[in-house]
Specification:
CATH superfamily of the largest domain: Aldolase class I
Radius of gyration: 21 Å
Structural class: alpha/beta
CATH class of the largest domain: Alpha Beta
Shape: elongated
Number of strands: 14
Number of domains: 2
Order of helices and strands: EHEEHEEEEHEHEHEHEHEHEHHEH
Largest sheet: 8 strands, parallel, barrel
Bound molecules: phosphoenolpyruvate, manganese (II) ion
Helix content: 25-40%
Low-confidence stretches: none
Strand content: 15-25%
Strand order of the largest sheet: 7-8-9-10-11-12-13-14
Distance between the termini: 38 Å
C-alpha cells in the first residue's frame, strides 16, 4: 500500500509512520517529493489495522496497490526510472535512444574487436555478445565462457563501449558481474527465480528479457523478484513471443511497449533480431519499436552472418546496420527522442 503524507507532515510524523509499519514487518520505500512524502509499504496488509494507520498524525491517505507487482508498479513510483550504466550512459525516457549491438555470440578475440569497432562507428552506445549461450541443442556452440568475457572487456577497453552479456547460472553471478556493465537475463531464464534473486542482491544493471511464452504480468513479476531483493536497476527487453504464427521465429509484441510504459516506471527496450529471426525484417521492426516508445534496441550484427556460430540468419551486416542507425535518427526525432 501507499501512505500519502500531508504536505506539512514533519520528519517526526513521517518517521513515526515508518516505525509503525516496520514493527508490523513491512518493507519501506520512501519517496520524498517537493510537494509531499509518500511511503510505499510492502507486506501483509492484514498485519496492521488500516484505520489505526489512517489516524496517525500527518497521514493524508492510504492507497492500496492493486497490482501483484508492487515495487515495479507505476502505482507506487510515478516517475520514470533512469538506469545509470556509466558516467556517460543512462537508459530511460529522458535519455537518448540506447542501441546495443554486436554478435549473438562472442566467437573469438579478433571477431569481437572487429564488430565492436563497426558498431561504435555506426553510433551504437553499447556492445552486446554472449559468452554463455542458451542453446536448444547441447551439441550447438555453447559460448566461450570466461574467455569470451575477457574478449568483451578488451573490446570495451579499445572502444569505450559498455558491454551487455548473458548470465545463465546463479553460480556465475560474480564472474559475469566482474566483466559486464549490464547483466542480461535471457528469455529462457526469465522465470529462473533463484537467478533473479541473485542478480537482485547486486547493484549491477540487469536487462530482463521477456520469456517467449510469458505474459506481461509474469514478466513484471520476474522484475519484482529482482527489485524486491534491492536492485532497482532493471531494463526490460521485449524480444518476441510464441504465437500460432510460425512464419517468423517469434511474434514481436509491440503492444507491450506502451503497455509497459503504462504499468511500470522501468525503461523498456526491444530486440527485433530475436523478435523476427530474419535479418531483412529487423530494420522495419526496430523503427517501429522506437515509434512505439521504446527506450532502446538490442540488435545482432555480424560482419559475416553466413559464418556466424549462432543466429546468423537474423544478424545484420555492417552496412545494413549503418543504414538503420541513420534511419532511426529520423524516427527518433519524429517521436521527440534523440539518438
Ligand atoms: C540473445 O540475446 O542472444 C538471446 C539468446 O536472447 P533471448 O534470450 O531473447 O533468446
Ligand atoms: Mn542470439
Amino acid at each position: 500500500m501507499i501512505i500519502v503524507m500531508c504536505p506539512d507532515a514533519s520528519d517526526e510524523q513521517i518517521n513515526h509512520v515508518i516505525d509503525k509499519l516496520a514493527q508490523h514487518g513491512f518493507g519501506i520505500h520512501l519517496s520524498k517529493g517537493v510537494e509531499r512524502t509518500v511511503i510505499g509499504a510492502i507486506g501483509d496488509k492484514s498485519a496492521i489495522e488500516l484505520s489505526a494507520l489512517q489516524i496517525l498524525p500527518g497521514v493524508s491517505e492510504i492507497v492500496p496497490i492493486r497490482k501483484p507487482y508492487k515495487l515495479v508498479s507505476r502505482e507506487l513510483f510515478k516517475k520514470d526510472t533512469i538506469v545509470k550504466i556509466s558516467d556517460k550512459l543512462k537508459i530511460g525516457s529522458t535519455q537518448p535512444i540506447c542501441v546495443m549491438a554486436g554478435p549473438c555470440s562472442v566467437e573469438g578475440k579478433n571477431e569481437i574487436l572487429e564488430v565492436a569497432q563497426i558498431v561504435k562507428k555506426a553510433g551504437a552506445a553499447m556492445l552486446r555478445g554472449g559468452a554463455f549461450k542458451p542453446r536448444t541443442s547441447p551439441y550447438s556452440f555453447q559460448g566461450l565462457g570466461e574467455e569470451g568475457l575477457k574478449y568483451l572487456a578488451l573490446a570495451r577497453k579499445k572502444t569505450g563501449l559498455p558491454i551487455v552479456t548473458e548470465l545463465m547460472d546463479p553460480r556465475d553471478v560474480r564472474l559475469v558481474a566482474k566483466y559486464a556493465d549490464v547483466i542480461q537475463i535471457g528469455a529462457r531464464n526469465m522465470q529462473n527465480f533463484n537467478l533473479l534473486k541473485e542478480v537482485g542482491k547486486i547493484k549491477k544493471p540487469v536487462l530482463l528479457k521477456r520469456g517467449s511464452g510469458s505474459t506481461v504480468k509474469e514478466w513484471l513479476m520476474s522484475a519484482e523478484y529482482i527489485i524486491s531483493e534491492g536492485n532497482k536497476n532493471i531494463i526490460l527487453c521485449e524480444r518476441g513471443i510464441r504465437t500460432f504464427e510460425t512464419a517468423t521465429r517469434n511474434t514481436l509484441d509491440l503492444n507491450a511497449i506502451p503497455l509497459i510504459k503504462k504499468l511500470t516506471h522501468l525503461p523498456v527496450i526491444v530486440d527485433p533480431s530475436h523478435g523476427t529471426g530474419e535479418w531483412d525484417l529487423v530494420s522495419a521492426m526496430a523503427k517501429a519499436a522506437i515509434a512505439a516508445g521504446a527506450d532502446g534496441l538490442m540488435i545482432e550484427v555480424h560482419p559475416h552472418p553466413e559464418d556466424a556460430l549462432s543466429d546468423g540468419a537474423q544478424s545484420l551486416k555492417p552496412d545494413t546496420f549503418g543504414d538503420l542507425m541513420r534511419e532511426l535518427k529520423v524516427v527518433a526525432s519524429a517521436v521527440g527522442r534523440r539518438m
